Amino acid sequence: MELENRMVWDGNTAASQAMRQAQIDVVAAYPITPSTPIVQNYSQYAADGEINGGEFVMVESEHAAMSACVGAAAAGGRVATATSSQGFALMVEVLYQASGMRLPIVLNVVNRALASPLNIHGDHSDMYLGLLSGWLNICAFNPQEAYDMNLCAFKIAEDMSVRLPVMVHQDGFLTSHTSEVVHPMADNVAYGFIGEYKSYNPMLDFSKPVTYGAQTEEEWHFEHKANQNAAIMNASGVIANVFAEFEKLTGRKYKFIETYQMEDAEEAIVVMGSAVGTTRLTVDRLRKEGRKVGVVAIRVLRPFPKDELAAILKNLKSVAVLDRNAPMGTTGVLFNDVCAVMLDNSICIPALNYTYGLGGRDTTLEHLTKVYADLQECTKAGKRVKPLIQHINLRGKELSFFDAK
Amino acid sequence: MATPEHLLKDWDGFALGAVLTSFEKTEEWIHSDNNSFTYSVADWRVEKPVFNEEHCIHCQFCWIYCPDTSIISKDKKFSHIDYDHCKGCGICAHVCPTNPKSLLMYSERVAEDSALANWPKKEKKAGEENS
């Protein structure tokens, strides 16, 4: 397909175009809002003969979609799909199968709230649901990144020293349905970057029959799961190399953690997803007032970049972590990850946790300005003077937990 | 049987994804250590099938129905039972069409020659006269 140097694409189009360029062998998919256009676009490419002989399989559910992906990947092909929310929840059982079998599948997760109550809009409930499933997790904050991270995801997943499935996250609607200028690569350049698929122990190699999905009881299971966890931890080197190679090709530089105005920052917000852009704008505004504030955006959520984060946080005077998910009885997942890094590195600063954006609730410059104001109060006092958990843009009287002592 | 010590590899000592290879040398049918070919599950069994050649018509029903490939046939004739892999489900005896049966289930403790010596006689069908 002929592409212009600059295309106007939303996040879904960007992801589906990257999938087309990857020359995938099998896409098995079941559409669900807001990731539907990825599946829809890809089926159109298939109907138009644009997927280079690959298979597009329509299945009866997301459980079946990921199951077909597992089968195709074990058979020895390049495989990808997309989903959101309830569909993601239905896939969960098979997500563990895919990662345990070390099948390098790429899954686009267009983040959406989980019912009940039913909601089609963006938050990170589905992303958080999958964090223990043994996949690598990479976050895209806009359509360009959705395109770029998809291409990188194939290359990372399929590296012979990684061989793990990768999720590429983008926010439902705010990224998936927002059109922006995207600079794509030509088809041959994008495919050249990913490279030809190399199979590993493919089931279709009849000269070497293999068993996938073996049973391992108490004398085996621990070793296999420890091996898998080690592979996730050790994937950092490959991710860094792929990002470096991508930069050489496109000039677009990606890091495990994207920092903004952090060189001299005293206060920072740690955040993921489409809210990253809004937080950067908030920082631009506050910097004009002389505030030393910055943004820490997590690009690679698993493996969690602990050392990189420690280096970024070490000179801060206070920090806020935003979780786009109801923590349901404790502090947010991202907050907990950040605090574990601070504890291990003796970074003893006030840390605040905010729940925001559930079910697509707006988070604006004003809301984030208030977060930075809270941080400023903590910095001045030299301790946490705000509740540990607060809510951004929640209607009603203030709801917070664990008041300042 | 418990996994033999020499098969218990360390966490970094096995193929990715718990993938198991069936053969060391596929063309020569040399099975790998982690293939169940060399692994006995005889101790899962409470009852065992006993084969009586005298009545067998080599219909191959038992060979087709055995869920564990434990009925071994050669040249379309019953050869023997693979007691390392037979789990004693009794399907072979159930599907055996001869009268009397050519396969019957016995307790593990019953010796084969004793089972054969006391094999049941042909059963008469309803209404059949004594010959």
Q: Can you give the helix content of chain A as a percent range?
A: 25-40%
Shape of chain A: globular
Number of domains of chain B: 2
Biggest beta sheet summary of chain B = 2 strands, antiparallel
What's the total helix number of chain B?
3
| Structural class designation of chain B | alpha+beta
Query: How many beta-strand runs of chain A?
Result: 16
The average pLDDT score of chain A comes to 97
Tell me what you see in this structure:
- The complex is a heterodimer of chains A (405) and B (131).
- Chain A has 405 residues and is an alpha/beta fold.
- Chain A is 40% helix and 17% strand.
- Chain A is built from 13 helices and 16 strands.
- Chain A has a 7-stranded mixed sheet, with helices on both faces.
- In chain A, helix 6 links the parallel strand 6 and strand 7 (166-171).
- Chain B starts with 19 loop residues before the first strand and ends in a 14-residue tail after the last helix.
- In chain B, the strands form 3 sheets. In chain B, strands 2-3 form a two-stranded antiparallel sheet.
- With 131 residues, chain B is α+β, with helices and mostly antiparallel strands.
- Chain B has 2 domains: 1-39, no CATH class; 42-123, 2-Layer Sandwich (Alpha-Beta Plaits).
- In chain B, a hairpin with a 4-residue loop joins strand 2 (23-25) and strand 3 (30-31).
- Chain B is elongated.
- At the A-B interface, strand 9 and helix 8 of A face strand 1 of B.
